[in-house]
Amino acid sequence: MTVTPLSLPLLVVKEVTKRYRLGGVEVEALRGVDLTVAVGEFMALAGTSGSGKTTLLNLIGAIDRPSSGEIILDGIPLRLLNSNELARFRCKKLGYIFQTFNLIPTLNAMENVEYPLLLLGMGKEQRKRLASEALDQVGLGKKLKNRPSELSGGQRQRVAIARAMVKKPRLILADEPTANLDRKTAGEILDLMQKLNKELQTTFIFSTHDQMILTRAERVFYLADGSAAESPLSFATSEMKRCA
Amino acid sequence: MRLKIAFRNVLRNRRRTLLNVFMIAGGVSALIVFNSFVLSVIQGLRDITIKTQTGHLQVATPTYWSRAAKSPKDALMDDFAKTQKRINKHPQVKSASGRLTFFGLISKGDQSTSAQGMSFDPQSEGNVSKSFKFDKGRPFQSAKAHEVAVGSALAKQVGLSIGDNVTVLANTFDGVVNAIDLEVVGIFTTSVAMIDERTILIPLKVAQKLLDTEKVEQIIVNLKDTDQTDAVHRFLKKELGKGLEARTWYQVSKMYQQVEDFNTVQNSVLEVIILSLILLGILNTIGMSVFERTGEIGTIAALGEASSNIWSQFVLEGALLGLLGALSGVGLGAVLIQVINALEINLVIPGATLPMVITLRFFWFAFLNAAVLSVLAGTLAAIVPAYRASKMNIANALRHNI
User: Fold this and answer.
1) What is the tens place of the pLDDT at every residue in B294-316?
2) Cβ pairs A/B, distance under 8 A
3) Is the dihedral of CA B277, B279, B285, B290 positive or negative?
């Protein structure tokens, strides 16, 4: 089922399938998924563990290729790009937030946020200014020199958010961003993501099986056993309850 | 920033890095010490060869060098005093003296043995004892004195002591047997067994009298600085023209060349063994690092890092590890050389008669060579694991936690 976007589509996923071999057996992680996401949306991919949420995020995030189907992001069909071009594309257009934060342990908060700007070839001064501003925005202006091991889980995820947004990407993908956080911190992280979504008009797609996050999403895209269904919030939550 | 990241990654697992640096430093210092030892021995041999046998350069007729003369007489140099003057024009020349060599017999009473005679010109070459270490006696009193200095092993064989009168027999260049009575005034050692066992020295004028000639076979040229040999060689080529030919000490001394070639091969074999160990050590470390940092590699690739940059990042880390090991190895090598010199180890080198105190000199080449090879080994060792890192499937890599 395809949803008509409210404004210009940023992302179009057309009949995407993903198959891979696991221990000699072919597994179909996604079965003909269709999805359209408009600029500025704050949407969730919902589903139980193993439903294909991460696989779909990986495909949208240009870090994996579909077995069939088409993904068009910001007007560019990803299948036309070779691996170097995909790397450049990810660098310019996308931001990532991971469940396990995935900060580089040898770099401090400031340097972690600087990293994507380094990949863009930005000069040192500008990198430092933008990274400092991004960390200020997520409330970590006083933790610039701290290494990830010196930060709490919530603080690490804030650094990860700052890293994702510092280059002002078209789309931020978040894979279960609150799964490793307590309820209070998870709520704060969601507030922050929503604030950035509103203020910067950055599109957010995040995967979750967390009820609280689902209630905060503007739109929920439900995945089960690799098949997808667009549903209103109430439908998604009732489905989640049923599956649980 | 990339260098900073590489440096921090190298120091991330300090214990492992430290072990690796120790291992590389051990290899590098072993290379430095061995290389310095070989170079010191070769340089020592070079100095002995120049001082006691060849001089820095030898000038002779092309016929002498080609050994194609019908009679040895044809290979002799006419009017060598003029040539001496031309050679002495170069400011680096310390001495240029005529030389005659011959095979003959030395006899004392009923004791005789064959000997290789070498003439020495006290006037132009100065004091003979500078080149030959006199255990007993003294150098020649004058250029014409009927005196002889004998190698220590030869003196022992014939039972010679200072003050003995001996007869030296030799064929003149015309093929007539000639004999001359001489007084033994010195017994010398050179550290080279072959010389001590066979050589007798007599003044040039006396040798000319014995061989019935006023000519010489060669002019031995000694320089102020050995490193200037090639420069003076070029000068002599121009100055002497086609009638005479100059050859350097390393062209003339086959033994020196053989020893140098052997040591170079030996050194290369050791280099390969030590570098292989360094290579395997770094390969293991970077391989472990790639495995442990799988999640991190996935993350930076997801952020848009090009695979070529991921590759170069790990190669840089390998090179840095090699550099850290090289710097520590250079320090350790310098300390070891000082320690070895302080121990004053006595060693009889092949072909020598006396034990020599091994003094290792500081050769910048030995240090630079070992350091460069270490960094190169680090870089090479990192190539394969770095390639593995750069070709990782990002989605799979991201499943590993950082």
Assistant:
1) 999 999 999 999 999 999 999 99
2) 76
3) negative
